[in-house]
Amino acid sequence: MNKQSLTLAIPNKGRLREPSLRLLKSAGMSFEVTDRVLSLRVRNVEVDLVLVRTEDIPGMLIEGVADVGITGLDLMEEANGASGLEPLVKLDFGFCRLAAAVPNSSAISSMADLKGLRIATSHPRATTRFLAEESIPAQVVALKGSVEAATKIALADAVVDLVSSGSTLKLNGLREIGVILESQAVLAGLPEVREHPMVRQLVTAVRAVNAGRRKRYVLLNTTPDNTGEISRIIPGLSAPTVIPLAEENMVAMHSVVNATDLWELLPRLEEAGGQGILVLDVGQLIP
Ligand code: AMP
Predict the structure, then answer these.
(1) Mutate to test the pocket of ligand 1, among 15, 127, 165, 172 (most ligand atoms within 8 A of CB)
(2) Sheet holding 251-258, edge to edge
(3) How confident is the model at residue 124 (pLDDT cuts 50, 70, 90)?
(4) What gap in Å lies between CA 203 and CA 179, rounded to an integer?
(5) Which of 4, 202, 219, 240 has the fewest CB atoms found within 10 Å of its own CB?
(6) Which of 101, 75, 116, 97 is nearest to 159 (CA)?
(7) Is there a contact between 107 and 48 (Cβ–Cβ < 8 Å)?
(8) Could you tell me if 172 and 106 are in contact, meaning their C-beta atoms sit under 8 angstroms apart?
(9) How far, in Å, from the CA of 136 to the mean position of ligand 1?
(10) Are the CB atoms for 5 and 48 separated by under 8 Å?
(11) Do strands 139-142 and 86-90 pair parallel, antiparallel, or not at all (unpaired)?
């Protein structure tokens, strides 16, 4: 691995492209990507971005063409043989599951029922590994796409495919019977890159963005006699900040809260004497 700069592979299209670009920008990288750009140097850090197909990224990491890359955990597992490619950090987007499904009319109700049957999938290695681990002998038919159609043309008795909401399965008359892998986007790399200073910087920045996204910064004004009650409602990371205001007998309180708690916190803060309540996004957070 080149010690001076980092080569980071990111999806050039598909559902992981935009969230990946957004994440890297939020993490502090300055760059502009246009549609046809294949690679570029980030302006403010020694990182070369290469834009390639999401499914090609694990192979590039294994071959050492890129140092780290953003891809799906499912694709990483699919490419992983003995290479030891690992998720350096999970990225909190691109959530889906690799699931087994059968036609609604099928008598099959569990994964164990797949014994001796044919399973069509675009993830043959992950499926084969799972079946071996679970001691379910079955025949895996590898397909590049249109996996949902395989049972209709009697190519297979069941399918293993990526599912997020489940609506595509339903649309194709399929019923989910079990999950092989829970997936999301990951920053992946070989174990030896984990301790590289630039990889550590990248992992810290990305973690801080994702931690910040789940939080909000709350500011409010109140009278000093309310600070005890309000501190109990919004204790923050350790304790809220209390600052005197220029106006006598008034203080400002600042705290960090879970974004998902705000719904019930705001009326309680108002009731406890909070005024001028402001809620701000948190760009990055290291707890
Ligand atoms: P792409 O085909 O380039 O849009 O990206 C495919 C990757 O996106 C998959 O390997 C998954 O990691 C992820 N993904 C997230 N949700 C889904 C979904 N509902 N179907 C397929 N892929 C998904």
Answers:
(1) 15
(2) 241-244, 251-258, 215-222, 275-281
(3) very high
(4) 28
(5) 4
(6) 101
(7) no
(8) no
(9) 26
(10) yes
(11) unpaired
Name which of 5, 199, 187, 220 is nearest 86 in CA terms: 187
Each residue's pLDDT tens digit, 140-159: 999 998 898 888 888 899 99
Return the residue matching tokens 């700069």: 5
Instruction: Compute CA distances 236 → 111, 205, 230, 242, 282, whole Å.
Output: 45, 21, 11, 12, 13
CA-to-CA distance for 266 and 216, rounded, in angstroms? 12
Q: Which two tokens stand for residue 266?
A: 């705001």
| Distance in Å, CA 127 to ligand 1 centroid | 17
CA 285 / ligand 1 centre spacing (Å): 28
For residue 4, give both structure tokens.
Answer: 């001076």
Which conformational region is residue 94 in: left (phi greater than 0), alpha (psi within -120 to 50 degrees), or beta? left
Contact 121, 161 (CB under 8 A): yes
Q: Which residues line ligand 1 (CB under 6 A)?
A: 11, 14-16, 54, 72, 74-75, 94, 96, 162, 164, 183
pLDDT in tens, 189-234: 999 999 999 999 999 999 999 999 999 999 999 999 999 999 999 9
Q: Which of 51, 80, 96, 122 to mutate to test the pocket of ligand 1 (most atoms within 8 A of CB)?
A: 96
- The SS3 of residue 95 is coil
Six token digits for residue 197: 């200073």
- Strand runs (DSSP E) across 184-286, as ranges? 185-189, 215-222, 241-244, 251-258, 275-281
Please indicate, yes or no, whether the overall pTM of this predicted structure exceeds 0.85.
yes
